[in-house]
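Chain A, query sequence.
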Amino acid sequence: MPRWLGVLILLTIATAFGANHVAARLAFDHGVDVTTAVAVRSLGTAIFVIALLRFAGVSLRVPGTTLRRGLAIGVLIAVQSWCLYSAVARIPVALALLAFNTFPIMLGLISWLAGGERPARRTLIAMPIALAGLALALDIAGLGASGAGRGTGVGAAALAAGTQPGFAAMLPGVAFALGGSTAFGLALYLIGHWLPAVDGRLRTLMFMVVVAVVAIAAAGLGGGFSWPHDATGWTGLSLLTMLYGSAITTLFVVLPRIGAVNNAAIMNFEPVAALALGWLVLGQTVGAVQMAGGCIVIGAIVYLSLGRR
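Chain A, predicted structure.
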């Protein structure tokens, strides 16, 4: 696959993930809880992938070793989802997303420590620049006073008052976000080493089945599902399922083909896409500081995409 095509596809995937967050916000605002959203989107993705595999005539049978490895990676994906949502519940959403988007750095470090591919110099330069741009785009410091960085949990009241929550209060949430980042980085590394020859759709099916089972079990222990109250909620839930399913399936198909270590940082465009879509769909204000941060992220992505294959 040509490098430029891989970069373009990854940018499209990042935008789809951003749209998924906007759809999720619609669902959450109309009665859906996190566990229900994760269970529905994972189960919906699994059904969608099964249909794709059947249509393509791909057998669902895999060797026992491959199945065990796929299920193990699925557990990591479930841990990543749980950690990220736990972080969002404790600290501002923007800070949780920023901390989680260190997963390309985690992936590079894991690969390097495991004796595998060393991150290219261009990648090591682009990663911190992209993260710095994300800090501005998500208005972590409140410079734009847009409120886009405000979240729920411990730090919400402090941000609403115009102050940053103390580090001690944010530490548990940051730890959860970094835990999710590490789990996702490890999952991407293992996909490239354990399942490189497995059809990307089949990989996605194994992962989503595990996540769905975990989410359904959590809902059972937590008192059941929380369904939408109206048509808007059902629309949001349907859209987040379709967007997430198509994006995650394409991601697991494309990323191993073009090299995860030096291309995963392109997914840092996702929060920027979410900001733009939030402005268009939800009417959220995007200030000059956020626009500048978005330009920095895009510039870092362009710089990364100009490297050699």
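The radius of gyration is 19 Å. Residues 167-194 form the longest helix (28 residues).
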